[in-house]
Amino acid sequence: MANSEIDLESVRQDYLASLQDLTFNSKPIITNLTIIAQENINAARAIVQAIEEQIRTCPPQHKLPVLYLLDSISKNVGGTYIMLFSRNLYQTFMDTYNSVEQATKSKLERVLATWKSGPTGNPVYSSEVTGPIEKTLSKQQMRYQSRGSIDGGRTHIHINPNFLSGINSNSLTSYQQAQQLQQVQQVQQVQQVQQVQQVQQVQQAQQPIQQTSNVWVDAARYNSGTSAFPASAPTRQGFYNTTQFANKPIIQQNQVFVPPPEQQRLLQECQALILQRQQYALRNPSDLQNQSQIVNLQQLSEVLQKASLTVDQIQQVRQLFASFNQMINPATVQAQGQSIISPSFPNLTQSLGPPISITGSLISQPHPGSIPVRSPVQQPPSSIPRPQPPHSLLADPNALVKNLIDFGLLTNTSTNLGNVGYTGRNNTPTPPPSNSVSTEPPLSTVKSVMGLEKIQLTSNDIQRKHEGVVAVIYDALPRQCKQCGFRYSGDDEGKAKMDAHLDWHFRQNRRMKEKSKKAQSRSWFVSDEDWIHSRESDTKNSATPAFFDFDSGTTKNITGGNNTNIQTNRRDELFNESTVIVPLDPEKASKPCPICQEKFQCFWNDTDEEWLFRNAVEVDGVIYHATCHADALKNQENAKLAEIENTSSPPVLGKRKASPEHISDMPKRPALIS
Amino acid sequence: MHSSAKGQTKTSQQEVVSKEWKLEPEHEFRFEVDFGTTVNLKLISGTAEIFGTEIGIGHEYEFSGRKIALFTWHGCTIEIKGTCSVEYVANETPMTSYLNMHIALEQCREAAKSKDEQGPKVMIVGPEDVGKTSLSKLLLSYAIRHGRQPLFINLDSNEGSITMPGTLTATPINHIIDVEEGFGSSATTAPSFSSSFMPMVFYYGYPDPSENVKLYKVLTKKLADNVSRRLVEDEVARVSGIVIDTGGLVDSTGYEIIQHCVDIFNVNIIIVLGHERLYSDMARLYKERNDVNVVKLSKSGGVVNRDNAFRRQAQMRKIREYFYGLPKFELSPCSTLINLNDISIYRVGVGSLAPSSALPIGIDRKVSETQLVKVEPDDTLLHSILAISTANNSDEQSLLVSTVIGFIYVSHVDISKQKMTILSPSPGRLPKQYLIMGSYKWMES
């Protein structure tokens, strides 16, 4: 509690340690570090020292985000920090500038530009500070311009924050891009991972283990949900936990389970069956049912290897095998296999994959080699109606698997499987997650709440046993989150919710990781008026202070994650692809967008070998931001639709400029990172 | 503390006792963990739930200073690490009736949805230590499973389920209730593991409603008004309904308060837990009212009597938790020096200021139970918990019924310098200047 005497050195150390996380352009981290800087304004000197030290010592590719942090602190906290940063700003900036690639250089230039005219129009740093930097830059730039095309043709890693925000919205295209990006980055990652791992290991030793272990346990659980696909599902725990995480499966594996002889015979039978099926699969590669049966059998064989079965279960397995063997023509078995719909698999890759690429460069990359692959296992089309199995339940592999899951064997095993897959990656594809396969209840037995008999609100009726009530809260909700045990229904709505839920877990875990070392405090409660009007999405994410917005879309997406924002995001992404070639006339090129009065972001396009304005359209010789223009058009349209007679639809620009909501939008879009 | 018997391995100081329990379907594993010790629980197989929240397989849950019942509908195997002061398996539980209650509520919700009416408004009453809070938790957790977002109204100022002891709160329950945290807690700047709720908080300041009935009624009325305003706007909550948890209200004041709450919240289902007389009284009282159902549920055999020491400890822990968070998720409150001139501290009710024996003969002690009295800062403030009101002026009408935005703890008072050292949950200056003092004191340990 002795806050009065702040140990500057320890603040510096702490902050420096926190800075180790800032290895890619992550808004949450930057936000958080900015807040910490603000909260510890008393220790500004130490924090400034830490940041300068970090910029000086970190690898070139990590410098930009730290500089963004510097920028963020300057703009959002200001005051003392401006003064302190000013002292060494030239050194800090130029060190960074000279050690980074061209793409990053232009970003730095944009940062510099915003310092000259800050978000409010006032310069963030005085011209005495920025002047010398500019002068040096322009000298260098002239040199660069002359050989621009050569440099521009180089492959560089360009992490565009807008593009990243798009990834967050699970967009498929960005997902694919992310894959490419990752491939490119792989080599770098090896390096980075090693570095960071070292750093983190040291940190771990210093930290109270409790905190980190919480994080990694959870991460490991998340992982276990996905890693049944070693080649497909990118493992998502932060690699600073990798060392600990890796221990766990190893321990599990060391506990060698020797199946009883009875079970070993079964196992042999099972493996023989698998072989038989696989041979059949070679001849009939299109037979999905057969494939799913193989999957089932493989799961079964895993169970047999890993867990001890009761006599009854062994009996059941035996009967199942008997029924398998009786079917001379495997095609007759089709019906059973068809129910294998593995919804959680695409869910996971969809919901987990993209955010991973965000953190792409670092946070959640345990191994450089794990490139997300869409789907190694062919998905049986889920739309095929499931015929009633003609065989007895015993002959139904699903029923058996379900039975096993009821005993917890299969779920357990799939976790093990996941871990095995994790340690020995690049194996042949392992079966899809068993949970979704097997927890799918026989639909006929589960009733909805209204399908049950009406329970009267009388003491007698409440005490009585009613049929099917337990199923309503368990079997009717077959999708279970592996992390917290929460359940969702098996329909599309449940799938969407489960996706959102997993995304939320992922965000939480990531934020836990980011913040675990940093001071947190309880928020103030909301006032009653706010409480009355706030809604679920507000409260759930109130933990993220809307401190500043680099880009309204990004922030909302991270915090809110609701559909409209995702849509906005996608839209923004689309507009981002709309480009205009930078005009040759320097005067025209330097003009800002007439609607929002902000400058255009220009970038070098490798394929066209041209400088382009991002998010821009040219209409009648005037260049607008594509987003601004579309908004203006939309407003005009709305105005027309509303048929406001007296105010004859004002010209595009006039209306936009005057509209209050636009003005309120403005501070949200400093051109810096958007 | 005694160690348990079977299948344990104890190799060193750090290696903790670990053992497995296998539960049959519809059995309950009850265990108690003392303050200061921790027990880790892991579900190996099967399904299990703790007060309605299903727990995930393979995940370790940590408990300390709790009395917990883990129930399984389907049977399960669990692993317990650490030493519980009490642990046993029970097969007689009222869970079937509790689940039936939930299904009945769910049917009301479906009906309400189709008719565009308000969902069920449930109030749980009963004496102390019958599991009212656990039942509320269970009903809320089950409702969450169906995608409902009921409002949880806590009128048990003794417990402070989501915030602090002494508070009356309304909280939208929009996500899973964390089994480790008890009832979850209010939002922090940090992403807590799963639970952070957004409560609306009124500060009553006393553990027992009978200490200032008038104030209790005024605050609950305001709370109820705000809740109904939200229900008008919030469609999900409107259908989901509300669940009201109360303190032990079985005396005449209790009856008065129950009736008051039934009226202001438009309660339509009263669940009487574990008290026959209260049930028959309530049934008689609302016999004429068709819109109010009174249902009797039996208490769980797992409910234990919490002695005063345990309650006190739980309160202290709740206060600590407000400032410092949980061991697995620590918060850093902020100790700051503030000027006594910058703040105004009030108490509600004159009577509470001095014992009647100290008053002149013939003077009525309780001039007004809801009168605001300014507290002159002195040493009596030391170790107090003060609530920060949202009010912007000290006029009685607004200050009395204002919600609070948080609490501070007075760790030092320096009258000569007119300064006070406080522990504040958030850094920065105090956002508001009006503070309300209750009866709660706390010692930082």
Automatic annotation (TrEMBL), chain A:
GO (cellular component) term, any one: mRNA cleavage factor complex
Biased composition (Pro residues): 378-390
GO molecular function terms noted in the UniProt entry: mRNA binding; RNA polymerase II complex binding
Ranges for region Disordered: 363-390, 645-674
InterPro entries in UniProt: CID_dom, ENTH_VHS, PCF11-like, Pcf11_C, Pcf11_CID, Pcf11_Clp1-ID
All copies of domain CID, residue ranges: 7-141
Biased composition (Basic and acidic residues): 658-668
Superkingdom as given in the UniProt entry: Eukaryota
A Gene Ontology biological process term: termination of RNA polymerase II transcription
Name the record gives this protein: CID domain-containing protein
Species assigned in the record: Rhizophagus irregularis
From TrEMBL, chain B:
The protein's name in its UniProt record: Polynucleotide 5'-hydroxyl-kinase GRC3
Domain Clp1 P-loop: 126-325
Residues forming coiled coils: none
GO BP annotations listed: mRNA 3'-end processing; tRNA splicing, via endonucleolytic cleavage and ligation
Family classification: Belongs to the Clp1 family. Clp1 subfamily.
Function description: Required for endonucleolytic cleavage during polyadenylation-dependent pre-mRNA 3'-end formation.
First-listed, main subcellular location of the protein, grouped into a coarse class: nucleus
Compartment(s): Nucleus
InterPro entries: Clp1, Clp1/Grc3, Clp1_C, Clp1_C_sf, Clp1_N, Clp1_N_sf, CLP1_P, P-loop_NTPase
Annotated positions binding ATP: E28, K67, D129, V130, G131, K132, T133, S134
Domain called Clp1 C-terminal: residue spans: 331-444
Subunit structure: Component of a pre-mRNA cleavage factor complex. Interacts directly with PCF11.
Keyword match Nucleus: yes
Entry-linked Pfam families: Clp1, CLP1_N, CLP1_P
Residue ranges of every copy of the Clp1 N-terminal domain listed in the record: 22-112
Gene Ontology terms: cellular component: mRNA cleavage factor complex
Keywords per UniProt: ATP-binding, mRNA processing, Nucleotide-binding, Nucleus
Molecular function per GO: ATP binding; polynucleotide 5'-hydroxyl-kinase activity
Species classification: Eukaryota, Fungi, Fungi incertae sedis, Mucoromycota, Glomeromycotina
